[in-house]
Amino acid sequence: MNIAILGTGAYGIALALMFHKNNNSIKMWTKFEEEKNSILKDHENKRVMPGVKIPKDIIISNDFQEVVSDAQIIVVAVPAGFVDDVSFELSKYYNEEQFVMLASKGIERDSCLFVADIFKRHVKTKKYAVISGPSFAVDIVTNCPIGLSLASENKKTRDIIRKTLESDSIKLRDTRDVIGVEVCGSIKNVIAIAAGILDGMGYPESTQAMFITESLHDIKELISNLGGDRKTILSYAGFGDLLLTATSKKSRNFSYGRLIGTREKKEVIDEYVKNTTIEGLYTIQSIYKLLKNKKVKMPIIDLIYDIIDNKKSIEELPKFLISKK
Questions:
Q1: Which of 36, 105, 127, 188 is catalytic?
Q2: Are residues 201 and 127 part of one domain?
Q3: Is the domain of 45 the same as that of 107?
Q4: CA within 20 to 30 Å of 142's CA: 15, 109, 280, 296, which one?
């Protein structure tokens, strides 16, 4: 099949290599001319995936129309903040025969919409799916066994993506619960920041396990309040992704939290934020606003928001775990 991948970041490259492994034809789009030229020259994106070679038959282009026009599956793999612009551009060329896989995670700041709703604002189709789960890009490209949740209300979309992407290293579990998968995929980045803070403060795995368990209960209630299925918390997108993101130093959100927890100098933290995509920083604003709009109580989010945005003492985090009802 012809696959278009919008975004040449680490996750986009990892997915491209998995589709390529299954003998699909791949075209990748990047907005940035310099990035395109660098990838074509070195056959790798040295900025985000150094050492991971991109096969020469994968086309890299700045021409959006060229990349998507003959694609049967279009993969959106850009940071959440760019999904609106990319979806608007896609609406100019999308045809009703194409399937879309949303690999981006997050919530839009102003509207508090999840990625699928941002996408649907511009592209009118039911042939889309959301993919999410415990999967660092670097682990995907080494062909480690990886499990992902594939959410779509359209069975044909799930079937086509499964046939095209699943392999001896990629396992997909179907669900119709798009909202539940999106809640899990978005909020886990925020939770990972707090987990990193606790780790940076020197708290052991026992405290981390307590924190993750409390977070699971809260996320489950949030999924339900937003119309999703509580059981999704036990999926790859739920517990699986939270466990990975909130415990690993490979996680950028966790690593950012550790810098706060170790009381690293402001200049060091600012430099890390400048050079790293930390989705949790983008999402905390949105999820905080969403909870207020929906009148849903989630004290752990309020506290993380206050620590990051209002400079509340990180010492409040371990205290909160004991006092939380």
A1: 188
A2: no
A3: yes
A4: 280
